[in-house]
Amino acid sequence: MTDPVIAEEILAPTRPARDGFDVSAFVWRLVLVAGLLLVWEFSAGRLFNEFWSSRPSLIGERLVALVKSGEVWRHVDATVSEALLGLFLGALVGTPIGIALAHYRRAAKIIDPFVMGLYGLPRVALAPMFILWFGISLFSKVMMSFSMVLFVFILNVTEGIRTVDPDMIDLMHTMRAPRSYIMRKVTIPSIVPWLIAAFRIGIGLSLVGAVVGELIGANRGLGWYVVRAGGQLDTTGVFAGLFLLMLLAMIANQIIFMIEQRALHWRRGAR
Amino acid sequence: MIATAGAPRILLDHVSVSYETPRGRLQVVDRVSLAVDKAEFVVLVGPSGCGKSTILRAIAGLNAAESGTITVDGKTVNGPPEHIGFMFQKDTLLPWQTVRQNIEVGLALAGVPPALWTQRVAGLLALLRLSEFRDAYPAQLSGGMRHRVSLGRMLAYEPAVMLMDEPFGALDFQTKAVMGRELLRIWEAERRSILFVTHDIEEAVALADRVLVFSPRPARIVAEHRIDLPRPRNLRALRGSPDYTAYTRAIWEALGDGD
Asked: Which has more pLDDT, A35 or A18?
């Protein structure tokens, strides 16, 4: 059903990460970031007008001010709620659809072009309709975010179930295992890596959905903050908003990574 | 055959199996009749892809026979029969479960009360020399060890009949020899019926009471050899013996030049 490129690069469960914390990589990261920030700081105002790019020290000050005034929480809270609600709604709706599509292959084959068509449709283009249907409250952003992640769950779960080892199922049949036992011991555990992969991809997409929703109509949220700052030619504000969004994505990724480590610990070999 | 106390455990009467393929019907098993007694070790040899595995799958109720009848313990097979243990070439362990949990699958499905599991698992792990690996995951084990766990799971299920489809085919020569020895040790202590598929003639002669030689697809029995080598067998000493060589040569000849 899926294009092999998608299947391999996007849908395949991520490879097991190595144990331990790579100190040297961490130090290199710090050095890289510090270097870039320094270049930025000292070139702004000298090599080019800082109006276009702001500078790290100003962005830092702005972030501190946002945190002190408490305004930052209003925006983070809005964006995170929208993204997380969209993500979990996507998982909740997408997983059973994925299971059904894997089960009813004939039906899946018939609707495949439509699913792929919707999957390929830039959801941003739906934003005007979403505003019309769901208003400019939290709900329309949740739906935008939901529309972004839904297909990731459908496709990953379908693919996950299709890759369940038939010999494992046959073996269970020879021991006359009940259906529920096979489900619990074989099917569900084999789709867990695919679900985690779906969450990993979905978390970024759900943030995109929330921000896109905010760009179009909102009165709070990080996306809204970025757009408003842009409208006021406040580049410092734009970068402060972008930085917070990036931070959220990184934290979310780290959380998924930790869940993955716990849930998929059985993948790690001896040495 | 009349069902008496000495009735065979497995009986195949003119069993044929075909598969539906995109290019039409493909017959893989052609009117095979065979009987396996209680406590008998029967090995099926034949060229790869000849349909030996299909016979095992049909006995296990995984594939339906197109014609003919299969009975296990006098009951006609129609779906997986009771007390059947199956081993594939792959270990088919659950990778997300530890060695102990994988063996417990066999105990759970055999209906052994959970109170007895700890003791049974310990006994099986000792038998298979895996005690230290009780809490390891399959990914942490070598191929040979994984096959021993797989054998342990099958033994935990306490099958009356063990159907083994090239169970050691994926292992290197040495590990295969070790596994063969372990299987004989276990089987000689507690005899059950075994139907074992391989394309390794030496393995067949070393293990079997009886070797059935199959033709290339569709599978038909072309020869039958009773292996009257003394038990318990010492596989290492066996390899040099003239009887052993005579049996392997006879089976080679029965197989012909193959396909």
From this structure: A35
